Amino acid sequence: MASTFKTFLETVRPQVNERIGNLLDAEPFDPDLAPLLLRGKRLRAGVLMLAHRATAEATGYTVPGRDAALDLAAAIELVHGASLIVDDMVDGDTVRRGVPTRNAGAGTAVAMLDAIGTLSLAHTLAATCDAKGATMYYSRTLAEVQRRMVAGALAEAVGRDRMKPWEYYQSVIHNKTARLFGLAAGWGMYAGYPPDTELFGSQEFVPRWRTWWTYGVNVGRGMQIADDHADIRHLIGGEGSPRPGSEMLLVRAWMDREAYANLLITLKAGKPHRGLLTTWYEWGGIAGGIQKAIHASVKGARNVLTGIPLPTHETMLLLQDAPEAIAKIMLEEEDTCKPTISTTT
Q1: How far apart are the first and last CA of the chain?
Q2: Global pTM?
Q3: Of the ranges 25-39, 187-201, 236-250, 279-293, which is most confident?
Q4: How far is 131 from 259, CA to CA, in rounded Å?
Q5: Right CATH number for 5-334 from 3.40.50.150, 1.10.600.10, 3.90.25.10, 2.60.40.10?
Q6: How far apart are CA 242 and CA 217, in angstroms?
Q7: How far, in Å, CA of 3 to CA of 136, rounded?
Q8: What rounded mean pLDDT belongs to the chain?
Q9: What backbone phi and psi angles, to 5 degrees, belong to 319?
């Protein structure tokens, strides 16, 4: 049995990858696409499968529900994979995690079609799970979250000066990242009940869904802040290239207007930026502010666990561990400094 979320994730990852691989083998996709879609940490799938496990322990709907949950976990990861292809096209990135992006390797036209095809697979899985329960729940909620993801990407691209920098950053990552984690947790809960359960449509369903949604959203928010934190440390270390992504929105949230404007001028001119950014990171409050933001998200996820029907002790420990474990995974993979996250709640 898994004793930590990271160990739990190691059991989930190959199962989800197998589902995705089987789907891709049955479709006329370019074989070069599969290796890209089969990469990844499967954090969203891990949250979904953990939510399903916790719910199924309470309902007893384990084996058939788990099969559906794995399909849904594959769907969630396919949505995420498609969003990365689109992000790379929008940003003009040529490398992701040391591997050429799809648009760099196959061209923008092929990458765009691959993203559309990948999303269609995700919707097919959602619709198939809907058919088993005679509902439109999975298809409807997936479409709603995808619309919000697009809204977040647009907000990141065009900016919203009328919003305060921190509110703007929070809005972007809530839509682009956190909502998909919320959907993963909600789907996991839903798949933990038999299709004919009387819970759906009852007054009990909405608060249970909201609890799991809130848990997932907080996990996703902490994950994205940690990921952006790691990217900032890369910039300070002279690695990577600055681009108008969410990590720069996070920097903007902690720098005053004049300093941020000077930083942008420096970046656009191709001049060394490490000194200015390092000064604000170490002495201007960026590092401490980011740590507090990550901790707030971890705490927010843990606080809602009291509203979840009590699973086994081990599963509750995994639920408590997941928010911080996911943030640490991002920091440790992306950042050699490995900042410590407080575990105090």
Answers
A1: 26
A2: 0.91
A3: 25-39
A4: 55
A5: 1.10.600.10
A6: 27
A7: 35
A8: 86
A9: -65, -40
